[in-house]
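tool=predict chain=A
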Amino acid sequence: MTGRWQMMVALSLCVALFCANWTALYVAQQAISRDLHLTSAAGVWLIYLYPAALLGVLIPVKGRLSVLLLGLGAFCLASAVAALAPNGAILIGGRAGQGLAAAIVLRAGFELAREHFRGTEWGPALVIPVALAVPALIAGPVIGGVITDFLSFRWVFLINVPLTVVALVLVALFTPRTASHAHARA
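tool=predict ok
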């Protein structure tokens, strides 16, 4: 497997992390609302702010590795803020930060993938993130439920910290620094 394909696997793991994170809160919301005394409206914000913030993926971003790594770092930090939030307002802010950071990573990752895959390779390259995203979306509520039942809702966010560090290292290691001329012209 060439560096380009390893990069796609690393980026796809980021997509899976973001998807599982998105749906894990559906189950954890009740425990969060109880423990942090969230109003019904705050509970709605908690759930829907993340996908709304993901609309930031529409913001044009140059597909540079540094932007992607910055986004992963921001996702890690926002996850830690959400995990340690003393109240609903900070938790919701952390959740918004997660969504915006995920949007940055997704957009920059898409641009990087477009730099390295052209022509007939583009379709097969996109299969990898989709193949991981769908099961991650489905697994999110199960993961969120198990974590919330056996640990605490805070671990739904805290688990993102080491997973994001792993994703950051994998993306940094496997992303080619420049598109090869043969693939850039295709």
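Helices lie at 3-36, 40-53, 65-84, 88-116, 122-150, 154-158, 160-174, 181-185. DSSP finds eight helices and no strands in the chain.
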